[in-house]
Amino acid sequence: MTPGLAAFIASDGDERGWEQSVAGALAALAAEFEVVPERGGEAAGPDRRTLLDTFDWRLHKAGLSLEYAARSVGGELRLADHAVNATAAVNATAAAGAAGTGTAGSTRDADGPDAAPSAITQPVTGWQAGRPHLMCELPDGPVSSRVGDLVVPRALLPVVTVTTSATTHRLLNEDGKTVARLRVERPAAGGQRSGPNATVLAPRLLIIEVRGYPSPARRAARLVSAVPGVEPAELPVFAEALRALGRRPGDYSNKVDTAIAAGMPANQAAATILLRLLDTIDANVAGVLADTDTEFLHDLRVSVRRSRSALKLFGDVLTATAGPAALTAADVAFCAAELKWVGDLTTPTRDLDVHLLDFDDTARTLSAAKPDDLEPFRTYLEQRRRREFRLLTRGLRSPRFTELSRGWRAKLTTVKDSNAAGAGTTARSGRGRQAGAETTGTLAAERTRTAFAKVARRGAEITPGSPAESLHDLRKRCKELRYALEFFAPLYDRVAQGKVVGELKRLQDCLGEFQDTQVQIGEIRALATAMLAAGEAPAVTLLAMGEVTAGLMSRQRAAREDFDRRFAAFAGIDGQRRMSALLRGKPGGGR
Predict the structure, then answer these.
(1) Do 451 and 578 reside in the same domain of the chain?
(2) Average pLDDT of the chain, as a whole number
């Protein structure tokens, strides 16, 4: 690779300006080289590549980029890290020079400036780039083995497809020898450049070095860089395509990341948080209905639970002010009831998903029975899930759910926008905040402190003889506290919050293990009874299910024995000091 050699992009605003920039680059090169179209330099067909990732961008967050490159026969998956791709986006590919051929064909095999020569590749056949693929559909290979643990249980989705046509020009010296090449790539997002659904992207100009002639390539790069309307290509073509479509890598997360501040009116912050949660619910509905992967339903349910907890924690502040923007207590109670309905609607399918996701791991733990003995149980679970999923989709497509989403959003938006307008008026008039109005900082400290006190009090009341319900109730209180810490995270020091959340998470994991195993034990017993009544339970299957239940009971006992230690670590003297330090600390966000 010649140092400083770069790929460029035409940057003058529209297609006409772009083509003028390309023409300007060719003219600038013609001043010092003879510019000759490469024989066969126009590709026989467009290059078509699709960026793949999960809905929540797991590969991108891990620093990886996965693409599918279509070929005349079959195709190929290519996996590279962001650092390699960033270098490839700025620098011209060295594939031609390294191979010693210096041909346009070698450059095209490397797929231009965004392809990483060191990427892991895996041939695939029958791949349909336009639909999701679960990891179980991907054959064994270097790519699947590298990304499998990152992706499962999510599906790989087509994020964006880029179709590129290209022409290549030879740059000749005064002796008529080819000393460099210019490759002009014309990409389009979503389809071929002339297609009805395509979003045309700016052309890219790539200077390709010919082995033995590094200086002419550098000179050609300098000439192109000086052309008005041409600038270095700082982003890979996939990033440019996403930006043109109004998206960006990592544009979905199930985190509650809101722009709240300590001095914001409390009801405005409450509405902002609840709107963010509603965004996450709505974003996952299509994936749930399509049954793309099980995490769509999981994320939807988490946001429903968070919303219900938010209403318990601070729903009253939505009704605390007078005026047309204020909600009534009936509004809040109605929404809370409807969110409970959504939670109940989604529970059966999610419970069955958990059984099926853990099925193979559970089967491998059997010692007295064989994994195959559980297969009738798997079949029964799958049939049961299909029935429950039909009920779930019927509910999510119902006018009741549609009206919940639309009506709740309208009410929350009114509260948020009314406060924002009022804040602007107050700022312009120079008047202070309305006397007596509660701020977000006050709300956060008060409600978080109360939630912590509930956890500490109820946890301290638990003894070795306490019923399982007491641990389940404590788990719910821990969730409410965890959500409060998440909702108000922008207000507090990250380090102090991280210490509190770390210990709380360990306590939650212990309580979750206890509760989840108890629920699974009850469900397996109920399912065994139902299978027996339906005549679908061979004796060996019932025995295997009994062994699974025994294993779950052993895990539950271990969690119960670990509870006292986990609770003391979170809510003991040190834990109380950590929480006090968090609530007294300076806000991490602006006031």
Answers:
(1) yes
(2) 87
What integer pLDDT is reported at residue 93 of this predicted model? 35
DSSP state letters, 234-267: -S-HHHHHHHHTT--TT----S------TTSBHH
> What is the rounded distance in angstroms from the CA atom of residue 30 to the CA atom of residue 69?
34
How would DSSP label each residue in 69-116? EE-SSSEEEEEEEHHHHHHHHHS---HHHHHT---HHHHHHTTGGG--
- Is the same domain home to 310 and 371? yes
Amino acid at 544: A
In which domain, by residue range, is 506 found? 266-584
Assign 159 to helix, strand or coil: strand
Say if residue 478's pLDDT is above 60: yes
**Range 498-516 average pLDDT:** 95
Q: How many domains does the chain have?
A: 2
Domain boundary among 210, 244, 278: 244
Q: Are residues 272 and 259 in contact, defined by beta-carbon separation less than 8 angstroms? A: yes
Confidence band for 39, pLDDT divided at 50, 70 and 90: confident
Q: Is the pLDDT of residue 101 over 90?
A: no
Task: State yes or no: cis peptide before 153, omega within 30 of 0.
Answer: yes
Q: Is residue 254 in some structural domain?
A: no
Predicted local confidence at residue 334, as pLDDT: 96
Here the tokens at position 248 are: 């960006």
Residue 100 has pLDDT above 90, yes or no: no
In CATH, what number is assigned to the domain containing residue 16? Answer: 2.40.320
Provide the sign of the torsion angle of the four alpha carbons 389, 392, 393, 394, taken in this order: positive
Q: Report the alpha-carbon distance of residue 556 to residue 561 in Å, rounded.
A: 9
Close Cβ partners of 214 (under 8 Å, ≥ 6 residues apart): 2
The SS3 assignment for 34 reads: strand
Model pTM greater than 0.70? yes
